[in-house]
Amino acid sequence: MSRIHPTYQNRSHDDKLTLKERSEEDTDQLQLQLVRPSVLTVWKRSSMTFQGTDGFTVFDQHGRLAFRVDNYSRKSSCNIIKGGRLVLMDGDGTALLTLKPQVLSMQYQWNAYSGEDKTGKRVTSTTSKTPDFRIEGCFRRRNCKIIKSSSGEMVARIARKRVNNRRILLGDDVFSLAVQPGFDPQLIMAFVIILDRICGMIASFTTNAKRVL
């Protein structure tokens, strides 16, 4: 079995580090964080455990709860059609962004506001003729990139989640979101939530159309 705890020798070495050496190590760790992507694990399920809820639960690379979206309606698409909103929260439940679809837009146009309600400052919108981001690949299959439209720079990558980095893939409800340095993970997560809702609406309309025909 591989050892996951530091050995006695390692602890002794740590105890002997000078303040200068510790500061240098902390600086190195910070620099690594600035150049490495922020890797999130997105679980398309509410952090609330009781029946009748859906949403998103997002963990950081250390397994800590980073973001959550709790929607108290199993038929979330119906809730949105009625003008419902989605609130992106941090791990402690503090509201970060409120996502709300535009009225009479067929749910394809959304606005994001800071805080818990529409009175906050509008952060971004999908109603612009020239979108800030575009998708390359297939979001529904969890295999795509989020690209910054103005520069063509890759902002984030979405991929199927693998078990212990092996060939075993988890279901579509669990996927990896790697956000590149310099981009706000909460804003990209909000974009992912909107993508998911739009894809869900398209799938719902397609299914209903087939039933009618």
From TrEMBL:
Superkingdom, natural source: Eukaryota
Pfam families: LOR
UniProt-listed InterPro entries: LOR, LOR_sf, Tubby-like_C
Similarity comment: family membership: Belongs to the LOR family.
Identification of the protein by name: Uncharacterized protein
